[in-house]
Design brief:
The chain has a single domain, classed as 3 helical TM bundles of succinate and fumarate reductases (Up-down Bundle), CATH 1.20.1300. Helices cover 74% and strands 0% of the residues. The chain has 9 helices and no strands. Helix 1 packs across helix 2. It is globular and about 50 Å long.
Length: 225
């Protein structure tokens, strides 16, 4: 246990925690994106999917129990991801307290340079998204249980759709850099497949961003209504 404690308190340990919690969040993001695309099948299929999320595990588990367990796991993953990211950031600042006299962007990407700003955008978006489509606090037309109609009404507001797409852009950059650096942290770093690692990171981030953005764009274009 002392070795485990020492590892988790070390810088590399914090990076491992950030990477492993990121894997959990990657799985959620992809499944959530795939579920969102069911909106193109119409209200019956989308509402059935939303209801299934609440009844999955029945009759062994009461209604909504597994959904709340998944939410708790995701909340823990987010908390660990943010805490470890903050610890790594503080360690980076402490290692260079006076900053660079002249900053040269060598072997760094735009995704890496905008990582912290993008993380703030994503966090603010998640808070708004929960208030909007989960609790209905900022959606005046929110109807509990009517998932399809709630999605259509919220994305019919152009400013909300625009903010959603901007957030997806920030998510895309975050995913690309996170997958690339997370793979390196977990030991998937070798000249023979580094290019493939980056291609996979790029492909995943583009697919997820396109999948999420397709819904508000379809609502604004009246393809989904």
């Amino acid at each position: 246990m002392s070795r485990v404690t020492a590892l988790t308190h070390s810088l590399i340990g914090k990076k491992v925690v950030m990477a492993t919690s990121g894997v959990v969040l990657l799985g959620f993001v992809f499944v959530h994106m795939a579920g969102n695309l069911k909106v193109f099948l119409g209200p019956e299929h989308f509402d059935a999917y939303a209801e299934w999320l609440r009844t999955v595990g029945a009759p062994l588990f009461p209604r909504g129990v597994l959904l709340w367990i998944a939410r708790v796991v995701l909340l823990l993953a987010v908390g660990l991801h943010m805490a470890s990211a903050w610890a790594v950031t503080r360690a980076s600042w402490a290692a260079r307290p006076h900053g660079y006299h002249e900053l040269r962007l060598v072997q760094t990407s735009y995704a890496a340079r905008t990582l912290r700003c993008g993380a703030v955008i994503i966090l603010l978006f998640v808070i708004f998204h929960l208030l909007d489509l989960t609790f209905g606090a900022v959606n005046p037309a929110f109807v509990p249980g009517d998932a399809y109609r709630n999605v259509v009404t919220t994305f019919s507001r152009a400013p909300v759709s625009l903010a959603y797409i901007v957030a997806m852009g920030a998510l895309s950059l975050h995913l690309y850099h996170g997958i690339d650096s997370g793979c390196q942290t977990l030991g998937l770093n070798h000249p023979r497949y580094n290019d493939w690692r980056r291609r996979i990171a790029l492909g995943f981030s583009v697919v997820v961003t396109a999948g999420f953005s397709a819904v508000p764009l379809a609502v604004l274009a009246r393809v989904v209504r």
